[in-house]
Structures are given as C-alpha cells and as structure tokens.
Design goal:
Elements lengths: L1 H17 L18 E6 L3 H15 L1 E7 L7 E8 L2 E9 L5 E8 L7 H15 L2
Antiparallel strand pairs: 1-5, 2-3, 3-4, 4-5
Helix pairs in contact: 2-3
C-alpha cells in the first residue's frame, strides 16, 4: 500500500512540474510556488541585450531556439536551450528605447531549479554588454 502511494505522489509531482508556464510564452502567467527565475534590468537597447545574452548563453550551454521581434513595437526576444541537463528560457523585453528587462528561468530535471546558473547568466550578460 505504501509503495503504491509513493508512486501516485511521484506521478502527481511530475505532472504538476510540467504544468508551470515558461517565460517565453506569450502570457508567461504567474511564477510557480517555488522561485525558478531571476530578473535583471539594463540601461541598454533590447537588441544589444539580446546579442549579449546569446554570447553569454553560448559560453555555458547550447541554444536550441531563438526568436526576435526587435523591429516591432514590442521589442520582445526569446532564447531557449540547455545548460548541462537544465532547461533554460530567457525573455528579453524592451521597456523603452534605452531600457530592457531580462528574465532568466531555469528548470533542472524533475522540476528542480538552478538559480545559481540563472545568476551566472545574468552576470555574464552584463559582462558581454561591456565588451
């Protein structure tokens, strides 16, 4: 009986972990009950932050998808990929012509997080902006 209960709980946890939205969706929704993302603000145009974030990401992992709508009024960009076994989503949003918001979201296997790597990607993006 106890073994069956553990399997049911494990299955429910896996299902719930897959139901949380990512920051690259059109409406990213509320963050989950646990913290899986960090946010940074830059006094740089969105295109410049997007290019710096791609260089930063490539220094740690592999980009599997990127999307940019800099030419539209939204100034919205997305980067998705992996760092080790962790899934990474980055949302870059132009707040104004010279200010940009970047959200880095990381999920480790089985629904865990890796905020240390999210912080490293933010720091590396800042470094890439100074180059």
């Amino acid at each position: 009986m106890r073994k069956g209960m553990i399997l049911v709980l494990a299955g429910a946890a896996l299902c719930l972990a897959g139901c949380v939205s990512t920051v690259t969706q059109d409406n990213p929704g509320k963050p989950p009950g646990y913290r899986d993302r960090l946010e940074a603000q830059y006094q740089q145009p969105a295109q410049k932050v997007f290019e710096a974030a791609k260089r930063a990401f490539n220094s740690y992992g592999t980009i599997t998808l990127e999307s940019s709508s800099i030419s539209s009024a939204n100034q919205l960009c997305f980067i998705e990929g992996t760092v080790n076994a962790d899934r990474v989503w980055i949302r870059i949003e132009g707040v104004s012509s010279s200010a940009t918001k970047m959200i880095v979201q990381i999920r480790a296997p089985f629904g865990g997080t890796n905020l240390q790597m999210a912080n490293e990607l933010i720091k590396r993006t800042e470094f890439e902006l100074t180059r």
